[in-house]
Design brief:
Chain lengths: ~110, ~110
């Protein structure tokens, strides 16, 4: 069974702090994604990665950066946290084999920025 | 343990057919149920359902929630090849202190053939 884990379920940070959110998957998937989820807005893609050291911007990358040094690990970095980054952050991994592209989601990290 | 189960896991239909996708859940502190369409890049938000018996419609797609029987259905009429995707169901839960989390089902892979 696919397992996607995120480093924290809940996190409280102060404005201006640097924040690291880590995601690990154990299924050797090529593709990994970071989303944020806000009430009524659905999932919005922040960044994704199709390979180690590869990253691409999603729909809302401003204020975020990512790192993928190893295939199983994809980190989301908030360089200087702001209150409008208070949200639920979801990581997903996806196998890329022809027409199969199901994404498997982690449990989410609820980040509050004070 | 919170659970979201989608059925069927995969479905192949011909263009013009009508399909019904199912999502049942067993969770505590239910807040809403969400449907997403997932194609190559990222899920697209379709519907958010919070009240029983009120149908939401968007073009050929519609969805309804039954909070007594704990399930939702997503209907697609007059299917087109562009409807081919994985459809994800997610349940939003209160997790205390004003925060919430999302639990996703494994998805239904719909293939529409000409």
């Amino acid at each position: 069974d696919v397992k996607v884990t995120q480093s924290s379920r809940y996190l409280v940070k102060r404005t201006g702090e640097k924040v690291f959110l880590e995601c690990v998957q154990d299924m050797d998937h090529e593709n990994m994604f970071w989303y944020r989820q806000d009430p009524g807005l659905g999932l919005r893609l922040i960044y994704f990665s199709y390979d180690v050291k590869m990253k691409e911007k999603g729909d809302i990358p401003e204020g975020y950066s990512v790192s993928r040094e190893k295939k199983e690990r994809f980190s989301l970095i908030l360089e200087s946290a702001s209150t409008n980054q208070t949200s639920m952050y979801l990581c997903a991994s996806q196998v890329d084999r022809g027409s199969v592209y199901t994404q498997y989601f982690g449990p989410g990290t609820r980040l509050t920025v004070l | 343990e919170d659970k979201v189960v989608q059925s069927p896991l995969s479905l192949v239909v011909h263009e013009g057919d009508t399909v019904t996708l199912n999502c049942s859940y067993e969770v505590t502190n239910f807040r809403s149920l969400l449907w997403y369409k997932q194609e190559k890049k990222a899920p697209t938000f379709l519907f958010m359902l919070t009240s029983s018996g009120i149908e939401k419609k968007s073009g050929r797609l519609s969805s309804i929630l039954d909070k007594k029987e704990l399930f939702s259905i997503l209907n697609i009429t007059a299917t087109q090849t562009g409807d081919s995707a994985v459809y994800l169901c997610a349940v939003e839960l209160y997790s205390g202190a004003g925060s919430y989390q999302l639990t996703f089902g494994k998805g239904t892979k719909l293939s529409v053939i000409p």
